[in-house]
């Protein structure tokens, strides 16, 4: 069990393999794949689809919201990086919560992160089905069903294939955003396309000001902004299957600032300088809408394909994560033993199958409420995903305290400014939760959260009564 493989000394090769071998996984993810998974993890539906709604609510000030939230995300990732270099395992933040906060915290974190990816999978397959209607007038539920089945099959082959698929999915997303930035730069400097005569950086403040609907409206978009960054922590789940985690993971985490600067802040600055923010509407990708406003119809079709790829990429990552998280829980006696089984290729078959089956709920949502499907699941995905961030930050604060007491070794990749940066990030997340409570559309997630907490609490009490040993972390 991975909890017994905590501190590995010795040669570099030992450090690179111990956790993975102890867990039974194959270390099939190389540096190239880890880098692209890290880059692509923060580029998904939240940017390509959700940003349309956020722009209509906040206007150009959304750029500032992404920049500030991006700084908080960097603090979270550096906190995670410090923990990963202390002990790189696939259970990641669930394991750290179990060790530094308590067994119940690990139990809640593991199951909540699993739920997050199930709900996110529903979100992404819903978005993918929405994109398909750009070309064909087919029911959303049909597309959602096909995508779910295909991605499930792809996840059962091997982690190496998963990494390769994610590499190319991410490459498509990155290329598309850079291409969009370059095209917008060309329109601003050379003036080609239908938008060439009006394109100007002054549109960032000339159409009603930088805060056209007030600072309050900008704050209300924070839920959408934070949802866009969900899955950036996925790189932590890959720790148990990375070939050399102590080299590749710090490099991947340190790319967070420029990823956010280019793909979020940079892309939005360019798009909103070419197309007025008033032309964007909820439910329509701002990238597709921008190309249509420029009069580049073919470009809009290409971008629609790219955002379809982005949604499928995120759903693919979700299926990968859920199987690993269920197996980690099972290995620690906090989930059904059947989930511990691996195929010959190192894939957690039953955990992935169980999760994919629940993702079929997305097919039903698309059948009964295709127009509201995305909105229904975004808010709950946000609150469950942010729980993982909270546990990362609290675990890192508790880890630092344990280091100070001499109980655990110091990490080789210390988070700068911690624990103050971690406390700041926690306060920011708290503010986002308050904003969600004020927003009538997002409030549903806060109603669901206590019910989920009650279910987990009862389940843990049953677990503890049947086997007290599984309710204790052993270092």
UniProtKB/TrEMBL annotation:
Its main location: membrane. It comes from the Bacteria. It is found in: Cell membrane. Residues 34-466 form the Amino acid permease/ SLC12A domain. It is a multi-pass membrane protein. Residues 1-10 have a biased composition (Basic and acidic residues). The chain crosses the membrane at residues 36-55, 61-80, 100-120, 140-162, 174-195, 215-235, 256-275, 295-315, 349-367, 373-394, 415-438, 444-463. Residues 1-22 are annotated as: Disordered. PROSITE patterns: AMINO_ACID_PERMEASE_1. Keywords: Amino-acid transport, Cell membrane, Membrane, Transmembrane, Transmembrane helix, Transport. Pfam families: AA_permease (PF00324). Belongs to the amino acid-polyamine-organocation (APC) superfamily. Amino acid transporter (AAT) (TC 2.A.3.1) family. This is Amino acid permease. It comes from Streptomyces gobitricini.
């Amino acid at each position: 069990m991975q909890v017994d493989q905590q501190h590995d000394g010795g040669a570099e090769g030992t450090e690179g393999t111990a956790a993975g071998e102890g867990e039974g996984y194959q270390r099939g993810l190389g540096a190239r794949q880890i880098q692209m998974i890290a880059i692509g993890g923060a580029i998904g539906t939240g940017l390509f689809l959700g940003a349309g709604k956020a722009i209509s609510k906040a206007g150009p000030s959304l750029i500032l919201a992404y920049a500030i939230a991006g700084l908080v995300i960097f603090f979270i990732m550096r906190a995670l990086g410090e923990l990963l270099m202390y002990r790189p395992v696939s259970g990641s933040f669930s394991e750290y919560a179990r060790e530094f906060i308590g067994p119940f915290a690990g139990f809640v974190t593991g199951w909540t992160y699993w739920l997050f990816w199930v709900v996110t999978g529903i979100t992404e397959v819903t978005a993918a089905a929405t994109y398909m209607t750009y070309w064909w007038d087919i029911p959303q539920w049909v597309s959602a069903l096909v995508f779910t089945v295909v991605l499930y099959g792809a996840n059962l082959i091997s982690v190496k294939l998963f990494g390769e698929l994610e590499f190319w999915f991410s490459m498509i997303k990155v290329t598309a955003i850079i291409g969009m930035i370059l095209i917008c730069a060309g329109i601003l400097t050379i003036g080609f396309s239908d938008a060439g005569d009006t394109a100007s950086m002054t549109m960032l403040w000339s159409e009603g000001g930088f805060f056209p609907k007030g600072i309050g409206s900008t704050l209300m978009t924070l839920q959408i902004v934070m949802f866009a960054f969900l899955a950036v922590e996925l790189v932590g789940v890959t720790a148990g299957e990375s070939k050399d985690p102590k080299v590749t993971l710090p490099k991947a985490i340190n790319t967070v600032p420029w990823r956010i600067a280019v793909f979020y802040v940079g892309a939005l600055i360019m798009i909103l300088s070419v197309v007025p923010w008033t032309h964007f509407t909820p439910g329509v990708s701002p990238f597709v809408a921008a190309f249509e406003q420029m009069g580049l119809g073919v470009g809009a079709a290409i971008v629609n394909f790219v955002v379809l790829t982005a949604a499928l990429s995120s759903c693919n990552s979700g299926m990968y994560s859920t199987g690993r998280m269920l197996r980690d829980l099972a290995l620690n006696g906090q989930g059904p033993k059947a989930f511990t089984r691996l195929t010959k290729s190192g894939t957690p078959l039953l955990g992935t199958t169980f999760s994919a089956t629940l993702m079929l709920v997305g097919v039903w949502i698309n059948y009964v409420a295709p127009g509201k499907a995305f909105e229904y699941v975004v808010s709950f995905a946000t609150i469950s995903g942010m729980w993982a961030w909270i546990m990362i930050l609290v675990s890192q604060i508790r880890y630092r305290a344990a280091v100070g007491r001499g109980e655990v070794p110091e990490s080789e990749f210390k988070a700068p400014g911690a624990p103050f940066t971690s406390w700041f990030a926690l306060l920011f997340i708290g503010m986002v939760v308050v904003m969600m409570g004020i927003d009538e559309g997002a409030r549903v997630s806060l109603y669901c959260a206590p019910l989920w907490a009650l279910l987990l609490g009862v389940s843990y009490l049953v677990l503890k009564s049947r086997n007290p040993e599984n309710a204790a972390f052993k270092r």
